[in-house]
């Protein structure tokens, strides 16, 4: 029997002081914005440079409230519900840094931690880039209702570059659902349903209340990581969490 929890953003309305603190942490880190335009090559390169070691160290020492849902039937989660480390992933399907993370870091985490039952990913798909982002988020949740969230996400991120908006329309995604072995008719109904729209809106609200204004953003148990940082930043944070839980 899965655990029953309120949607994670509800605690925010109960503890507004904590929310202000969290928002300050995220905004105060002043990390590269994934949605900032790359107006010149030098600007684009600066956006992709990892944090300085001292900034990462400060970030890793910060603790936030527990954002994990740990629901057995969570449509947008990957990994065991009882995994000791839960990573909340705030992502956008049209964010180039999210694509980078999905292609470079995620496979390592899957192989070394998720498949071993040590880590669970709980996605909060966001909409920072307009209609394509929104439609993809709706499609991801609808796919999750059929147990195909990972397959859907892998498809969207698979090219290694951001898919054009015309590949993320409702019509295009219904076709993709069929190709991925889903009930395409049910997928189309779910994607257009009030239930799915509400779930995606709640994810957006949670990110907004936390002060997350760019993607990707992560909370590893209670430790925040912003941006598509090098894979070692994630593995070191995960190892530190696992070690602390074994003490």
UniProtKB/TrEMBL annotation:
Residues in Thioredoxin domain copies: 52-243
Q: Which domain of life is it from?
A: Bacteria
Q: Which family does it belong to?
A: Belongs to the thioredoxin family. DsbA subfamily.
**Sorted alphabetically, which PANTHER family does this protein's record hold?**
DISULFIDE BOND FORMATION PROTEIN D, GLUTATHIONE S-TRANSFERASE KAPPA
Q: Where is this region: Disordered?
A: 37-60
> What keywords were assigned to this record?
Disulfide bond, Membrane, Oxidoreductase, Redox-active center, Signal, Transmembrane, Transmembrane helix
Under the heading InterPro entries, the entry gives: Thioredoxin-like_fold, Thioredoxin-like_sf, Thioredoxin_domain
Q: Report the transmembrane regions from the record.
A: 12-31
Q: What is this protein called?
A: DsbA family protein
Organism this protein belongs to? Micrococcoides hystricis
Gene3D superfamilies per the UniProt record, alphabetical: Glutaredoxin (3.40.30.10)
- SUPFAM superfamilies of this UniProt entry? Thioredoxin-like
**UniProt-listed PROSITE patterns:** THIOREDOXIN_2
């Amino acid at each position: 029997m899965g655990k029953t929890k309120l949607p994670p953003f509800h605690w925010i309305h109960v503890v507004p002081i904590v929310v202000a603190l969290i928002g300050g942490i995220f905004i105060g880190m002043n990390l590269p914005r994934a949605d900032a335009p790359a107006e010149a090559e030098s600007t684009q390169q600066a956006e992709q440079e990892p944090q300085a070691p001292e900034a990462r160290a400060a970030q890793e020492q910060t603790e936030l409230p527990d954002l994990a849902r740990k629901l057995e039937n969570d449509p947008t989660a990957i990994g065991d519900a009882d995994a000791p480390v839960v990573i909340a992933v705030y992502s956008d399907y049209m964010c180039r840094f999210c694509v980078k993370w999905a292609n470079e870091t995620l496979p390592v985490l899957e192989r070394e931690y998720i498949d071993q039952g040590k880590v669970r990913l709980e996605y909060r798909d966001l909409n920072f880039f307009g209609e394509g982002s929104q439609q993809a988020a709706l499609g991801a949740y609808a796919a999750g209702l059929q147990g195909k969230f990972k397959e859907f996400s892998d498809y969207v991120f698979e090219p290694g570059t951001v898919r054009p908006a015309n590949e993320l329309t409702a019509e295009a995604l219904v076709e993709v659902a069929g190709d991925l072995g889903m009930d395409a008719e049910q997928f189309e109904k779910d994607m257009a349903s009030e239930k799915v729209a509400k779930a995606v809106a709640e994810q957006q609200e949670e990110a907004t209340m936390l002060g997350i204004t760019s993607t990707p953003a992560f909370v590893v148990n209670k430790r925040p990581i912003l941006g598509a940082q090098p894979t070692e930043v994630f593995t070191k944070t995960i190892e530190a969490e696992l070690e602390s839980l074994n003490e």
